[in-house]
Design goal:
Length: 125
């Protein structure tokens, strides 16, 4: 895998699974290539269709081949997992860009806990 800079835009989410008994999700996304270096969006309150439009930058090194997205519902003193997904960076390296709605699969992968809109651009160094 090539070295370079990966720009990641987390545009929004849609039809996120409701984790709250009352009200809607207070959703945010943690994004990382390496678990030691997580970045996160702000929390968007009381919606299952949040809009973040937040931009993150990652310096990619040889061997980095997957980017992870963990979506959470922020609750007082706790957080609930709404869903997780990952994208193979080969998709980005091949075209230099990626712009898709990525599903948050359930444990068995038979249905979805919603989707997040991810845009990525890669610049080799």
């Amino acid at each position: 895998m090539p070295n370079g800079t990966l720009e990641v835009i987390i545009a929004g989410g849609r039809r996120l699974k409701d984790e709250d008994t009352f009200g809607k999700n207070d959703a945010y996304v943690e994004v990382y290539v390496d678990k030691k270096y997580k970045q996160k969006t702000t929390t968007v309150s009381n919606t299952n269709d949040p809009v973040w439009n937040e931009r993150f930058t990652f310096n990619l090194h040889h061997g980095d081949d997957t980017i992870h997205f963990d979506v959470y519902d922020d609750d007082v003193g706790d957080r609930d997992s709404i869903g997780k997904c990952k994208v193979k960076l080969k998709n980005v390296f091949d075209d230099g860009k990626f712009d898709e709605w990525v599903k948050l699969p359930t444990m068995l992968g038979l249905s979805s806990h919603g989707e997040i809109h991810v845009i990525m651009n890669f610049r080799p160094s």
